[in-house]
Amino acid sequence: MDFKESLARLDIELRALEVHLILDNYATHKTPEVRKQLLALPRFHLHFAPTSSSWLNLVERWFTELTQERCKRGIHRSIQVLERDVRCMAGRLE
Question: What average pLDDT does this structure show over 41-66?
Answer without folding.
Answer: 80
